[in-house]
Structure formats: structure tokens, C-alpha cells
Here is the input.
Amino acid sequence: MNVTERFLKYVGYDTESDPASTTTPSSLKQLTLAKALVEEMKEMGIQDAYVDTYGIVYGTIPATKQGVKTVGFIAHMDTSPDMSGKDIKPRIIDEYDGGVIVLNEEKDIKMGPDEFDSLKDKKGKRLIVTDGTTLLGADDKAGIAEILSMAEIIMQSDCPHGTIKLAFTPDEEVGRGADHFNIEAFGADFAYTVDGGEVDSVDYENFNAASAEVEIQGRSIHPGDAKGKMINALLVGMEFHSLLPVFDNPAYTEGYEGFHHLTDMHGECEHAQLSYIIRNHDEVLFEKQKQQFKDAADYINKKYPEGTITLTIKDSYANMRQIIEKDMSIITLVKEAMKQVGIEPTSHAIRGGTDGARLTYDGLPCPNLGTGGYNYHGKYEFACIDEMEKSVELLVKIVENIAK
Ligand SMILES: [Zn+2]
Here is the structure.
């Protein structure tokens, strides 16, 4: 099976995860793919392949050379709950002409390079697109297909290599992909998530992230009798928000610019609550943003009775760069392998978090590699076959280079 055949097989499994569920994995249908992957791995000769009680698939390709570092490759099995992942009808475009692609004639669903930058450099390439009614699932079944295609090539070659660890996780899209990952059992010295975007990207920067809950205690009095007594919690909430820098807002930021984002506000005169997320790649600026929240709360508590605002800031995840940059060899390794297979390496600052960031902080350094999949979480999702094939070549080269 080549990487495209593998990919098309996996998208036949509906593995949509469910943020509302409390089970692990969040949707049991993910286990159907997990079991199929274990079968496939065993047939390939990965004898220890298994799925654990949390729905994570693990497997090992034993070393053919001793004294070589153990590398891991990780991809996720679930697809985003933002759009249905059921009855996906992928279509291959053998040579993209660079124009508008009609995904669905009947429903008049099209995509073109004017709307989607990611199509601009794809002229002449082979693409896999949806029929406009579902997502494609290249996020992240392209990653699984690429890792197992690499595994098959390595196992059939006589090229010396160290131990290679493979893992496929459920529930990445609902933020629980790293919750039960057993780093110790996995036993890799370092790993790569293979998940998303241009095949020339090796990404090791993500946001530092925190949440801020603002509880406001007002004082409700009959409005006709309120002079000098009423404290309207809703108005205090608006005042609190007005004390924060106005341009630190997702709608005004890009690249390395951080933001705070008001995700929810509700309340009444007596009591109000505002919820925020705070994001920044830079640790120092991130701390400064948190301090601005504290200063705003202090000001309110001086102006109004003490205890009017209760602010709770919790860190969610951190930028893996702070750890990766202490030893950049796992990035250099990728960049050199890229050049050897004819790719010019790029790195992007991810404006979000990754499972790899969590794993990095838990002790397994884990940057991300691109898959050749684009426009995630919706009907415009597509995969570039040429890039998927390039990714397989790259993964093989990385494995070979580690053993040199
Ligand atoms: Zn993904």
C-alpha cells in the first residue's frame, strides 16, 4: 500500500471526537480505527502493536543498529467535531490546473486560489479534495498514513537504524490527546508529531497560554432607591475590560503578537463573570499581560469595596520553544534531512497549542512536522499527494540520519 492508498483507507473510518463526552476516548468509534491500525501494524511485522485502555495505539520497530537514539513519531486518529467526518467521499485531482475547483456541483460548493492561499502554489500537483459535505480528515490521517508508510519502507530496507517508536492518539481535536500518553512506556528520547500544514515546515514554537476568570460582586438595590449605594456588576465588568490594552485582541493580531480574548461574559446587577484566554509566544510579554489583568483588578478593588473583583489566572500550556531551544539538534536533524530530499525548511510560530507542546513539558521533546494537508476542520480541507509522498521520504531520511 502506498501513502495515498493508506490515507484513503483511513478516511473511510468516521473518527470524529466529541467535546461533550466524558468517556475516553471521547467517541468509541475512534477505537475501530485504532484496532484496524494495530492489525495493519502487526501484518507489517510490528509485533508489539497494541491499543491501550485509553485508546492510544503504540508500536515499536526494533533497532538494527545499537547505540542509536530512539525516535518517536506521533499522529492523531480523531477528526474535528467542527464538521462531520462521516461518509467522506474523497476525490483525487490528477493534475490541478490552478483554477477554481468545483467540490460539489449540485450544492454549488467551490474553492479557488483567490480565497485560499494554500492553493496558490499547487498548480500541476495531485490533490485529494472532499465532495463539499464533510471534512477530509487529512488532519491527521495524512500523518498516520505517512508514518506507517515510512515504517513499511524502513522495515523492508536493510538500512541500519535505531529503535523507532510509533503512537497514534485519540481526541487531539478536543484537547485531550496528551492526557493519557505514557511517555515512559513510549520510551523515545525525542519525538515528532506529524500533523498539519506544509511539508516544508518544522514547528517548535507555540503560545504560552493561560485562562483568566473575573468574578464581580456587585450590590443590587432597587433602582429607584439606589443613589450612592448600587454597584452594578455588569458595569464594573465593562470598566474592567476597558482597562486592558485594546489592540491585544485576536482580531488585531498575527504572527508573534499576543492577545487576550474575552470568551464569555454574563451576569446581572448583583454578580457578573468574565472569562478570558491569554496568549503570547514570548514568556516575558506573557507575564506582562497577566500583570495587566492583576493591575486592572487591583484598581477596581481600590475604587470599589475591596473584594469587588476576584481574579483567577491559571496557566494552561507553555511554549515548547523554551525547552527545545536548549538543544536544537532535533530541529537541525529535520532541516538537514529536508535539504537532502529537496525541501527548503521553514518554521512557523504556531498560534495555538499542540499535543507536542504538552509532551515536551512532560519530558518528551516533540516538535511538529507538516503533512501536506490544508484548510483543516471544514469542507475545504484538502491534501496534496506530492507533499504526502515527500513527507514519507523525509521521515525515512530522518530515521536514516539518526543512525549515522
Ligand atoms: Zn491535527
User: Anything to note?
Assistant: The two ends are 28 Å apart (CA to CA). The mean pLDDT is 97. The first strand starts at residue 50 and ends at 51. The domain at 3-205+320-402 is CATH 3.40.630.10 (Aminopeptidase).
